[in-house]
Sequence to fold (165 residues):
Amino acid sequence: MSLNKVLLIGNVGKDPEVRHLQGGASVATITLATSERFKDRNGESREVTEWHTVIAWRQLADLAENFIRKGSQIFVEGRIRSRSWDDQNGQKRYVTEIQADTIQLLGRRPEGAGSQQGQGQGQQSRYSQPSYGGAPAAAPQQPQHTTPIVSSDDLNDDGTDDLPF
Fold:
């Protein structure tokens, strides 16, 4: 058995780059930053930021084009994909990307983002890629009014826990 699943919550580093391909398909490239905070051996707080390239197709690309901007906080669920190619000099190049299956908008909508009827600030929207096999594209789900999957308090680990070791 194997599993290739990625869950990321982070902030968008720049406006998504969206390309419209022949046949009507769209693809968006989203640069996403995730940060980890911890205390080093000297007790000083440190923060390490990791940058991810997220690839979104079809309806998720449209979502990125219309609603995601630099600074947006998003939740991405997807898969790791690696690919390689030969550059102009004949050297082999490699890249590892996250292929998005679901994107959830978190927090407030940034200035200049498109408006969506019935979605106020502070609410969340979840969009999923349609399943494979030729099924028609699923409409975006209604905004969820439930507790977020991961709260910001969960991300700020102060190093204390209830574990006995």
Residues 59-67 form the longest helix (9 residues).
